[in-house]
């Protein structure tokens, strides 16, 4: 398994590097399965724990832009131009890639937020007045989803280890962001983007946006919202095709 380092390694790797950042409440352990695939032979895979989600929380407020700053720093230190970003982390990747000092030029968006309807987990934070209330409600919701589903159970356990304040603040900011712009449009402006997804996992508004946007995409039939967990070989193969195209 590759090292998980929130700061990234020192110096550029010999092979092209792919930073990997998890979605809402999760951490970089969701990418562990990719270490045993052919992708790891062609690229240096660098799972990155974001502040509050596997790494120590930020001293200030946890916002999309603050996490983008942390990601841009990791990209600079790693000499990485590619990022695999899951769910709401695609917004973080887009904001990072648009910074003048960030070397990221390619975003592999793993069922990333394209429309407001994609904030079906993170956006619910705005419905709660404080971090503790949101955390309790969110974990209760995930407990129901985890019954008989190892993929959801893994996610639930990782959310339980996230910093509660960071979780709540990020969720509220994700709701605000999706209400003030179209996340998919912002993603397209950030650089080269390839969308990786299985249509049944996506809201209809997102599927409609994909059909009219022209965003390159590759399907992952039968995968969950966490294909790096339940279908790592399939995901790795589509990533290799996406990067070769």
Explain what the structure shows:
It is a single chain. The chain has 245 residues and is of the alpha/beta class. 43% of the residues lie in helices and 13% in strands. The chain has 10 helices and 8 strands. Helix 4 (131-146) runs antiparallel to helix 5 (150-161) and helix 4 (131-146) packs across helix 6. It is globular. 49% of the residues are buried. The model is unreliable at 1-9 (pLDDT under 50).
Compressed to H and E, one letter per element, the order equals EHEEEHEHEHHHHEHEHH
Shape annotation: globular
Helical percentage = 40-55%
Q: Percent of residues in beta strands?
A: 5-15%
Strand order of the largest sheet: 2-1-5-6-7-8
Oligomer: single chain
Query: Would you state the CATH class of the domain at 17-120 and 181-244?
Result: Alpha Beta
The gyration radius over C-alpha positions equals: 16 Å
Q: Taking all residues together, what is the mean pLDDT?
A: 93
Total number of beta strands: 8
Note poorly predicted spans. 1-9
- List the total number of helices: 10
Largest sheet: 6 strands, parallel
As for the CATH topology of the domain at 17-120 and 181-244, it is Rossmann fold
* CATH homologous superfamily identity of the domain at 17-120 and 181-244: Alpha/Beta hydrolase fold, catalytic domain
Ends apart, CA distance between termini: 27 Å
Please state the structural category: alpha/beta
CATH hierarchy: architecture of the domain at 17-120 and 181-244: 3-Layer(aba) Sandwich
Summarize the structure.
This protein is an alpha/beta fold.
């Amino acid at each position: 398994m590759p090292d998980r380092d929130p700061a990234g390694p020192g110096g550029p790797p010999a092979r092209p590097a792919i930073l990997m950042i998890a979605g809402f409440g999760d951490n970089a352990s969701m990418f562990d399965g990719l270490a045993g695939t052919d992708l790891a032979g062609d690229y240096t895979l660098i799972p990155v724990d974001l502040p509050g989600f596997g790494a120590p929380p930020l001293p200030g407020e946890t916002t999309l832009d603050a996490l983008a700053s942390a990601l841009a720093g990791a990209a600079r230190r790693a000499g990485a131009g590619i990022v695999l970003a899951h769910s709401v982390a695609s917004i973080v990747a887009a904001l990072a890639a648009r910074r003048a000092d960030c070397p990221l030029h390619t975003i592999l968006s793993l069922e990333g937020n394209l429309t407001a309807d994609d904030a079906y987990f993170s956006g619910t934070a705005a419905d709660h007045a404080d971090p503790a209330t949101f955390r309790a409600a969110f974990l209760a919701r995930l407990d129901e989803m985890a019954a008989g589903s190892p993929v959801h159970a893994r996610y639930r356990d990782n959310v339980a280890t996230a910093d509660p304040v960071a979780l709540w603040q990020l969720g509220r900011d994700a709701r605000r962001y999706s209400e003030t712009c179209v996340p998919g449009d912002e993603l397209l402006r950030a650089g080269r983007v390839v969308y990786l997804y299985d249509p049944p996992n996506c809201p209809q508004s997102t599927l409609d946006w994909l059909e009219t946007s022209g965003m390159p995409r590759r399907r992952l039939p039968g995968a969950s919202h966490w294909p790096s967990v339940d279908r790592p070989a399939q995901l790795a193969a589509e990533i290799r095709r996406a990067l070769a195209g």
